[in-house]
Amino acid sequence: MSLTVEKTPTGREYKVKDISQADFGRLEIELGEVEMPGLMACRAEFGPSQPFNGTKITGSLHMTVQTAVLIETLTALGAEVRWCSCNIFSTQDHAAAAIARDSASVFAWKGESLQEYWWCTQRALDWGVDGGPDLIVDDGGDTTMLIHEGVKAEEEFEKTGKLPDPNSTDNAEFQILLGLIRDGLMSDPKKYHKIKERLVGVSEQTTTGVKRLYQMQANGTLLFPAININDSVTKSKFDNLYGCRHSLPDGLMRATDVMIAGKVGVVCGYGDVGKGCAAALKRAGARVIVTEIDPICALQALMEGFQVQTLEDVVAEADIFVTTTGNKNIIMVSHMKQMKNNAIVCNIGHFDNEIDMLGLQTYPGIRRITIKPQTDRWIFPETKRGIIVLAEGRLINLGCATGHPCFVMSCSFTNQVMAQLELWKEKDTGKYETKVYVLPKHLDEKVAALHLGKLGAKLTKLTPEQAAYISVPVEGPFKPPHYRY
Amino acid sequence: MSLTVEKTPTGREYKVKDISQADFGRLEIELGEVEMPGLMACRAEFGPSQPFNGTKITGSLHMTVQTAVLIETLTALGAEVRWCSCNIFSTQDHAAAAIARDSASVFAWKGESLQEYWWCTQRALDWGVDGGPDLIVDDGGDTTMLIHEGVKAEEEFEKTGKLPDPNSTDNAEFQILLGLIRDGLMSDPKKYHKIKERLVGVSEQTTTGVKRLYQMQANGTLLFPAININDSVTKSKFDNLYGCRHSLPDGLMRATDVMIAGKVGVVCGYGDVGKGCAAALKRAGARVIVTEIDPICALQALMEGFQVQTLEDVVAEADIFVTTTGNKNIIMVSHMKQMKNNAIVCNIGHFDNEIDMLGLQTYPGIRRITIKPQTDRWIFPETKRGIIVLAEGRLINLGCATGHPCFVMSCSFTNQVMAQLELWKEKDTGKYETKVYVLPKHLDEKVAALHLGKLGAKLTKLTPEQAAYISVPVEGPFKPPHYRY
Amino acid sequence: MSLTVEKTPTGREYKVKDISQADFGRLEIELGEVEMPGLMACRAEFGPSQPFNGTKITGSLHMTVQTAVLIETLTALGAEVRWCSCNIFSTQDHAAAAIARDSASVFAWKGESLQEYWWCTQRALDWGVDGGPDLIVDDGGDTTMLIHEGVKAEEEFEKTGKLPDPNSTDNAEFQILLGLIRDGLMSDPKKYHKIKERLVGVSEQTTTGVKRLYQMQANGTLLFPAININDSVTKSKFDNLYGCRHSLPDGLMRATDVMIAGKVGVVCGYGDVGKGCAAALKRAGARVIVTEIDPICALQALMEGFQVQTLEDVVAEADIFVTTTGNKNIIMVSHMKQMKNNAIVCNIGHFDNEIDMLGLQTYPGIRRITIKPQTDRWIFPETKRGIIVLAEGRLINLGCATGHPCFVMSCSFTNQVMAQLELWKEKDTGKYETKVYVLPKHLDEKVAALHLGKLGAKLTKLTPEQAAYISVPVEGPFKPPHYRY
Amino acid sequence: MSLTVEKTPTGREYKVKDISQADFGRLEIELGEVEMPGLMACRAEFGPSQPFNGTKITGSLHMTVQTAVLIETLTALGAEVRWCSCNIFSTQDHAAAAIARDSASVFAWKGESLQEYWWCTQRALDWGVDGGPDLIVDDGGDTTMLIHEGVKAEEEFEKTGKLPDPNSTDNAEFQILLGLIRDGLMSDPKKYHKIKERLVGVSEQTTTGVKRLYQMQANGTLLFPAININDSVTKSKFDNLYGCRHSLPDGLMRATDVMIAGKVGVVCGYGDVGKGCAAALKRAGARVIVTEIDPICALQALMEGFQVQTLEDVVAEADIFVTTTGNKNIIMVSHMKQMKNNAIVCNIGHFDNEIDMLGLQTYPGIRRITIKPQTDRWIFPETKRGIIVLAEGRLINLGCATGHPCFVMSCSFTNQVMAQLELWKEKDTGKYETKVYVLPKHLDEKVAALHLGKLGAKLTKLTPEQAAYISVPVEGPFKPPHYRY
């Protein structure tokens, strides 16, 4: 691998697939702006005061059209931005090109190798001699993890002189990560410490990343304040649910053109993502079976008319399998062997270990036929039956389609902007300790409110008498913190 | 009003509409048992050890078939029970008769006057010379409020000799309440203090009752420990949502036989109850418009394809109006005047002040035609247009139909049994202070688990490796407390 | 059986359950009028010219509130009317009372015996010495069959002197019918011939009745012109589909209060009625399995996400069974034995032979417990498991609820009025031969058009240029006869 | 325009975009075969007897993967095939390449000019010196029209020596057609007569093409027998309904990535196609408004909860507009001017005159920005608002996505195979006169039956007794011809 950073005429660093797609990217970004009223409202409200004047923000989040509108909202508020994607298949190259040309340093392209992925992540963190970043926008927590692992390795090295050993793990990706940290250590043994010192905080987008943060908080290893975006209502109950309801069938159709009506779909997991996926398949005319470990979610699935079974019971009769669990080892190669010919297998959870890709790749005698990028048919030697695996087991909606649509991402990303503003505003007040926080409910409600006008909605106003009767302020927040929506 | 307590041959006190309906009630209770697996599982698990041996439980909760199965679960665990309904129209007289004859003291009938309602409530609290109750099951909080108001009046009386003055309020129902307390004070000035002293705690069923409890906790006026059943996931996300989705159309159809398909429905409020109601009307073929104060709930409504408008904007074009807010003054007489001829107006929230019944009753020249009990046509003199008001503005599903069905009430009531068991078990340990608690998540999950088998569902089991990966115990609880489902 | 005809003060004959319910019936009829815009438009358009002046119409059609509005539309157009119900459980007694008191001779009550049923049918046909009827409104074809069987028996008697022999059949109902004809023959051997001579025609409401008519047309035994109402689009695709979608869950809930969500429902047959039933159960949250003989309908079911299986395959796992086939022997006692405890079994097809009621009643050792009228639990001696059979196997929506709602019946019944008007107008022109006809498409479209305003709809108008482009008149009809909607 | 026919090494003529895509096309065709059980069953049943041995078939039907499986079914039955697409944007170039390389002469590519389109059509009809075709598969009727116009011009020329004059029309496409015929006339004045003489018949796929055929039949100008595929139940109620339900959102998402949930959609026309489109948008979470001219279809829309309004009433508030009418002048430039910024306008009807593309193109000062092929933003000079027009007003699902999915097209195309077989088998028997026919119901049912196994369905079998009871054969057909499904 030999990757070189390129530069725009104005000297901005980047590495994208094809900078000439910038015009096309710009057109789609302009369309996106119309569909992202929350972000545009942030530009209108906060742009004039330039709260991020001189602030350096590193982002690691799918480099799509939607993210482009987020990035340009951050720059419109004064920030300098460096960006990478958090998934090897999720970049939209035209969006990356437009941002690289016009607004921020981007290191991302569709179809990175793992090696390239981590190179990009490092570039996004590399603010040069002046140091940085001040803030991080993270999705899945890889950038946060890199800093934590870096700091840990530097401490170990300082104490013991020991370098991280990639051979200490058999996780291929973690090997790469350790190699990178080792190489970094040799050139600058305080690199990650410096980053950590300066860093004000991170805002994290996903269930998966948030789980990592809470684990570090619990373990006492967390290094800087974090805001949990995922558990804003306007994120978890919107992007996870309505976003997946939109983008799962979109990905399935673009990848396979399969008629969903009449088919049997299995959705593994019935959390917010699973709820969106199951609803989407049902509405498209499929019969849907849900697998669940949690009896409450299972009972919810039943109340919507879904059958709840174990994967083993239904693996041989279903046509479409979707994992949404955020857990690992959900669909194993032993399951895949039993499936019908041309059964479709995909994952919409964050990581690619929900489906046993390793088991599949190493199955003796298996044959892989790539129909088109991200659509592979794997044929078992014994049965000659093939299964269709999408996006190599990674996020189908970003690998096979364009991810969640602008409108719902505007909700999520407006939360990101609120969180970044909050962290920055309070950077010297001590309000945020080295802990994980959620945004206060009035900001959550504000995010929603910014999205109503676009859809022609009109809110009812409480009278002071009514507000008193239910003990809330006239202007909200309207619900107690534990309210579930 | 001259009401007399009756007695069964065995000496059990009761007052019901018609004790001869007991056989019919028994048959429906037996059907109900098959549909209430959670309660039956409690009988099987806890019956042998008789944890409530000698415990005196007062309940104030719609005296329906479902509640009958709850009552007989409590008695099967050893309790002595006295019961009243928490709504003047919600009693199913055959269920009341069966319980009165066979199991517990019941004071309830369909169509009580307010005076009768509070008489019944007092009877349910009246354990005679030995005192009691030990525990309360409450719904809406009227019994809890009676004790709190009683104690307050007794304290005032002790301090100042002043008796409560019914004329101090113009709320007709509160006048009755104060009158009762005043009369009680004269015969026993420590009546409510004695109740309070003995009482171990209350478990409260509804949003409305819970809100009152939290207010009292905040004000420092709460007198005994309370468990908030409403915010168990297996209550608020089940009974409120799926229960109303079932029972709103049931009530509409029994009361009016109206074709819902093709009509325009307005649902005021899009909380759990409103979500169930809006879904029910949509599924029945109506076009549904939602009114909301909370931008998050409003955005949820939009994502499901509902129009969000203010009541004023749509009052003249809709056919069916449902209030679900738990607030007051939602549909005023000024709205009702503008409605189409024979527009249907009903409330599924707890109290009858969501619809301006007083405004309607006192509207000059208005004419009321009772089609059948709980179905009234009110004709405005100027327009000659009538509107159909159901259940006199009280809970339509209990006034015009039979309330929520057994299965979903089994979830709610299994929470009640868990809560009563918990309060009783810990009565001497100090675990529960004078505060409001929710049930721990593992009990919530247990309630759900007890209901899966009946629906033929099969849960997936985590492997220890998977459990470790997502940092939960193999047996659960599976979600953090803030998880929204 | 000793039944006597009663008379109103004005001398109108009737036999109903309780004439004192007339006021209640009148109130519901008035509500119904607001929901039946098609019928009210007929009154407005045709009332002034009194086209039925002196016309004698016999109707045999469920004596409900909706039918009351139909009857009073016929009388508003000048007709004299005699009416009976076409199902022993379908009469709404208050509607019958109001009509008997105010408008027409009614012979009908809820819960007739079969003997009583046929007595009522005969009364509705008995116009006394002046003879009649001129026209028949039929539902299921029993009145039409009575006349055909009567004429056949009279011919046989005239030729051979042989009387019909009830013992020649083992169908209990047909025995009664033959007995009646035999008795009639002895008092007037030309009774049915006289009816036939005068009769201008019949308009038939249902699939079942229409099938009989086409069979008679094919056999050459049809005796008078018939208009097939069932196959008007505004009947079969409305009443059958949307009516059942409304009234199946209504009947289930009134009879059993069962929670439909989470249950497994089996719908036998996926014609228009089955489509409505399957949709209703699905929307209520059930998982639905369809049984079908017709591959096209089966494929339609699959496209909506329903599983298609045979009854045998699923009989032991389902909770609710509904027959909609119009065929016989669909659910046999051998099936019922295998069902889960308290499985619910009902029929929404026209006749009660879809469910093997005879097999059930004669099953050795079976025990029947009547929970309430039309809701019976049958307990098998071997398993002690019970099943719940609704409406004794007859139409659940009319036996356990109030049938289809007004609005959709207004569509069906406006077709009836159109057909009766058409038959009467053309009685002397020879336009209608002794055949079965459907209404012309422009009348079908007119029926629909009369129902749009009530729902606030606004039609688009073709320009002459557009009309020419698609080769239809500007005012319609808009579709070719074979169009399927 | 200078187009040259190319040849494969084996001498087969073709003209496609890129023959090197044949391998990719082949892979997708192989996937398609698994999803097209009806066509594969035809190969199994009829392949061995080679009924089309030596038969020359010309097809004009969207050259997609699905069509490729149809073509190779025809060749598997012995036919020689020449093919073109019936829409300038609908070809999938990889499918065209695979067929051209492996199976049949193809003249089609995505993005033809109109000139190129008719050149391709002529090539598909050009069987060289030996003459042909024997049969035609047509979609929309352009090939059939070309022959009819050709014959008409030849007759005129023979009679009067007059050549067709392209300037006699201002329809740009018809000018091209007349020019082609004129040029042909000069080289061979009997070209179309020879085609007509040999031609056994045509099977026509669409509503639009069928309408043209019935007009010609009515006018007496039809030249050869035609089978109306469109009105097979397994076509019009499947492909039109379920196909569009799938492919409309697919096209919208691929073209615009727009979030459909929360938006207001307007569907012009509520026939089978409109029903599919309205259902798709509703299920995706949009609020849908329907426009209709036919009161019956309008009432159906209302029963499903759709608002029915005129376009004028809602043009300014909607976000997505879809025309499905098969009529012309539905959305005019005057409407488009009033739309919201970035409103999406598309057509799923057969021809591009539903949307006033000419009015748009010639609007003074309008600016067109092509976001990507088939996705254009048109900006009005006065308002600066843009609208997004998809597929240049042509079929969105074929222009912006890949058309209907394989499974539903297998139903349609199995009808095509049945029709072609039937025409060929009866070519000498006189069974088919110069008229328009539909396939008999038993073949329609057979098509459905061939698709059940793939979806795991199991049909119920009638007993002879049941069959007799409802007067149908045990093996079907099960429904009368007028049955609507």
From TrEMBL, chains A, B, C, D:
NAD(+) binds at residues 206-208, 271-276, 292, 348-350, 397, 404. Its EC number is 3.13.2.1. It catalyses: S-adenosyl-L-homocysteine + H2O = L-homocysteine + adenosine. Binds 1 NAD(+) per subunit. Pathway: Amino-acid biosynthesis; L-homocysteine biosynthesis; L-homocysteine from S-adenosyl-L-homocysteine: step 1/1. GO terms for cellular component: cytosol. One of its GO terms (molecular function) is adenosylhomocysteinase activity. Transmembrane segments: none annotated. Belongs to the adenosylhomocysteinase family. It is an enzyme of class 3 (hydrolase). The keyword Hydrolase applies. Residues 240-403 form the S-adenosyl-L-homocysteine hydrolase NAD binding domain. It comes from the Eukaryota. The lineage of its organism: Eukaryota, Viridiplantae, Streptophyta, Embryophyta, Tracheophyta. Its cofactor is NAD(+). SMART domains: AdoHcyase, AdoHcyase_NAD. Keywords: Hydrolase, NAD, One-carbon metabolism. Gene3D superfamilies: Adenosylhomocysteinase-like (3.40.50.1480), NAD(P)-binding Rossmann-like Domain (3.40.50.720). It holds the Pfam family AdoHcyase. GO terms for biological process: one-carbon metabolic process; S-adenosylmethionine cycle. PANTHER family: ADENOSYLHOMOCYSTEINASE. This is Adenosylhomocysteinase. The keyword Ion transport does not apply.
